[in-house]
Amino acid sequence: MNTGVQTIPGTGAYLSNAVAAKSVAPQDQALVQKCREFESLLYAAMLHTMRRTVEKSDLFSGGHAEELYTSLLDDEYAKIMSDNARHGIAEALYQQLARPSAVRPHEGPVKG
Rounded to an integer, what distance in angstroms lies between the CA atom of residue 62 and that of residue 52? Predict the structure, then answer.
């Protein structure tokens, strides 16, 4: 069964077949990993914001320890979400950053 996902060797990160078909160079594996980490940070911010919207009850509130635990739990959820290749944020970021720049600072715009 082809799920449309491949694992990048040495990083533990997943990459969709569309991006993996371009055969990620060994020097780009670090870029892919950083893109995954950035995607994880976006999800963590989203989860923390969502968690703040939930009204807390005095009856079941665990205080500071519960807040710390749920914050760490949200961070782990974010890592799991970023490893899921169906979202595509890391892949889009990788494709944008891996693309050669059309403008080089010392040469000016490329003509032609």
Answer: 15
H or E element that contains 84: none
**58 φψ region: left (φ > 0), alpha (ψ -120 to 50), beta (else):** alpha
List strand residue ranges (DSSP E) for the chain, in order.
5-7, 14-16, 103-104, 108-109
What's the whole-model pTM score? 0.64
Tell me the per-residue pLDDT of 21-49, one tens digit each, with 9 for 90 and over: 456 777 788 888 899 899 999 999 999 99
- Convert the pLDDT of each residue in 52-75 to its tens digit: 998 888 787 778 888 899 999 999
Question: Measured between alpha carbons, how far is 65 from 61 in angstroms, rounded to an integer?
Answer: 10
